[in-house]
From TrEMBL:
Keywords: Flavoprotein, FMN, NADP, Oxidoreductase. It comes from the Eukaryota. InterPro entries: Aldolase_TIM (IPR013785), OxRdtase_FMN_N (IPR001155), YqjM-like (IPR044152). It holds the Pfam family Oxidored_FMN. The keyword Mitochondrion does not apply. Residues 44-396 form the NADH:flavin oxidoreductase/NADH oxidase N-terminal domain. Gene3D superfamilies: Aldolase class I (3.20.20.70). The keyword Protein transport does not apply. This is NADH-dependent flavin oxidoreductase.
Length: 434
C-alpha cells in the first residue's frame, strides 16, 4: 500500500483552518516515518494501523493520565491545552485525554475533568482543535469512579476521601454494592445503586460520549472499565454482591458494561471508534477474583457490541494487591513489562477481530516494544510516564530504532531550512510501505 500526500508547493506557507489563530498546515503528521529508500524496512512500531475508521500513522499512543488540574467546575484549564499540546505536536499515533467524569457523582477527585455538561465539553474543544490543526488524532477516556470517586489528587494523598471542605461529595458516592474499597480505610462505604440510578448513569455515559464527539470533536471514545472504578466494580465478583439482574452470573455482572456500550453506540456516529480499557486480572488473593479467562470471555462479548480496541491493564479493585514492580514474569521465564503477558493472552484469543493495546513500562526500550508488536503480542503501545518525562518520546523512539520521522514544520527548522525543501523531500519519499 502506498501513502500519498496532497501537497501544493507555495511561496507562502499554508495555514491550518482548524483554529482561529495562525499555525502552519502540517503536510505530513509528525511521527510519520519517511524513507529515502522505498525498500528499507520500517519497524512495525512505526507502521500505520487501522482502528475502526481511524488510521494511526504509528503504533505509539499516549495513555490517559489524570492531571488533577481542572477548575472547581471540573472544566479544562490552560494547563491541559499546554500539556496535551506539547505532546500531540510531536507525533504520537493517538493521544487519549485523561479520565473525564460522566456524572456529577463520578469524578475521581474535585480536580478531575468532567464531561456531564456542555460547558465542560466546550472547554475541551480548544485541545481537540489544536490536535487537529497539527494533523493529529485525539480521543478521550470517559469514566465513573464508583466507590473510588471523590478522592484526593494523588499529589495530595493516595486513596483518601475528599470531603466537602475541598469540594468533594463523600455523601453521594455510589457503587454496585455497599462495600468500601478498603475496610477501615479513608474511602467511605458507598451507597448501593438503585435501578433508577443505574439507568441514569448508563445514559450519562452515552450523553458524555455524544458531547465529546459533537461539541468537543474527539476522534474516538475510550470507556474506562478498569482499576476498580464503577464498570470494573460491576463485573468483578469482589465488589458486586447484588442479587438482581446486575449481579451473580457473568452475564448479569457484565450487563452494566453492555448497556453502557449500547447507549454510547446509539448516540454517536458509527464512524467514531469506541475503545475499552479493562483490568484483565485483579492481582487479588480472593478466590472469586476476576481472571484472564474471564477477560477472554468479556473480549468475545464486547467485540460483538462493536468495540474497536481493547486497552489491557490490571488491578485496582482490591486493596490487597501487591505493589507493582512494573515487570512481570512471562511464561518463558524472563521478566517483561507487567501487562505484556496479559495482552499476549488476549491477542492470541481474539486474533484480528479487535485491536489490542496495552500499557505499563513501555517507555524504556523501543526495540523490545517493536519486537513484541512484530511477534503479534499486541498491536499498539500506550505510554504514560514516558511522555510526561519527554513529550518528544516518539522522536526519541525513531532515533533509537535508526529511522527518521517527520516533525512539525515549527520543530523541523534545524533540519529543513525552508518549506520548499520539506515539499521536495516529501515528494521524493512519500511511498511508505505499510
Amino acid at each position: 500500500m502506498t501513502i500519498k500526500y496532497d501537497i501544493t508547493p507555495s511561496d507562502e506557507a499554508e495555514r491550518s483552518d482548524v483554529v482561529p489563530y495562525y499555525t502552519p498546515k502540517q503536510p505530513v503528521p509528525a511521527g510519520t516515518i519517511y524513507q529515502e529508500d522505498d525498500k528499507a524496512e520500517v519497524p512495525k512500531l512505526f507502521q500505520p494501523i487501522q482502528v475502526g475508521n481511524l488510521r494511526l500513522h504509528n503504533r505509539i499512543g499516549v495513555s490517559p493520565m489524570c492531571m488533577y488540574s481542572a477548575d472547581d467546575k471540573l472544566e479544562a484549564t490552560p494547563f491541559h491545552l499546554i500539556h496535551y499540546g506539547s505532546i500531540v505536536s510531536r507525533g504520537p499515533g493517538i493521544t487519549i485525554v485523561e479520565s473525564a467524569a460522566v456524572s456529577h457523582d463520578g469524578g475521581l477527585s474535585p480536580h478531575d475533568l468532567g464531561i456531564w455538561t456542555d460547558a465542560q465539553a466546550e472547554k475541551l474543544k480548544p485541545i481537540v482543535d489544536f490536535a487537529h490543526s497539527q494533523s493529529q488524532l485525539i480521543a478521550i477516556q470517559i469514566n465513573h469512579g464508583g466507590r473510588k470517586a471523590s478522592g484526593q489528587p494523588l499529589f495530595v494523598h493516595l486513596e483518601q476521601i475528599a470531603d466537602k471542605s475541598v469540594g468533594g461529595w463523600p455523601d453521594d458516592v455510589v457503587a454496585p454494592s455497599s462495600i468500601a474499597f478498603r475496610p477501615h480505610g479513608n474511602y467511605k462505604v458507598p451507597h448501593e445503586l438503585t435501578k433508577k440510578d443505574i439507568d441514569r448513569i448508563v445514559n450519562d455515559f452515552g450523553d458524555a460520549a455524544k458531547r465529546a464527539v459533537e461539541i468537543s470533536g474527539f476522534d474516538a471514545i475510550e470507556i474506562h472499565g478498569a482499576h476498580g472504578y464503577l464498570i470494573n466494580e460491576f463485573y468483578s465478583p469482589i465488589s458486586n454482591k447484588r442479587t438482581d439482574e446486575y449481579g451473580g452470573s457473568f452475564e448479569n455482572r457484565t450487563r452494566f458494561l453492555v448497556e453502557v456500550i449500547d447507549n454510547i453506540k446509539s448516540k454517536i456516529p458509527s464512524t467514531v471508534p469506541v475503545f475499552l480499557r479493562i483490568s484483565a486480572v485483579e492481582n487479588s488473593p480472593d478466590p472469586e477474583a476476576w481472571t484472564i479467562e474471564d477477560s477472554k470471555k468479556l473480549a468475545d462479548l464486547v467485540i460483538t457490541k462493536g468495540i474497536s480496541l481493547l486497552d489491557i491493564s490490571s488491578g485496582g479493585n482490591d486493596y490487597r494487591q501487591p505493589p507493582r514492580s512494573g515487570l512481570s514474569k512471562s511464561t518463558d521465564g524472563p521478566k517483561e513489562p507487567i501487562h505484556v503477558p496479559l495482552a499476549r493472552a488476549i491477542k492470541q484469543h481474539v486474533g484480528d477481530k479487535v485491536v489490542v493495546a496495552t500499557v505499563g513500562g513501555l517507555h524504556e526500550d523501543p526495540a523490545l516494544i517493536n519486537k513484541y508488536i512484530e511477534k503479534g503480542d499486541f498491536d499498539l503501545a500506550l505510554v504514560g510516564r514516558g511522555f510526561l518525562r519527554n513529550p518528544g518520546l516518539v522522536w526519541e523512539f525513531a532515533d533509537k530504532l535508526g529511522v527518521r520521522s517527520h516533525q512539525s514544520l515549527q520543530y523541523g527548522w534545524g533540519w529543513w531550512p525552508n518549506r520548499q525543501q520539506v515539499i521536495d523531500l516529501i515528494e521524493r519519499t512519500s511511498k511508505l510501505q505499510v
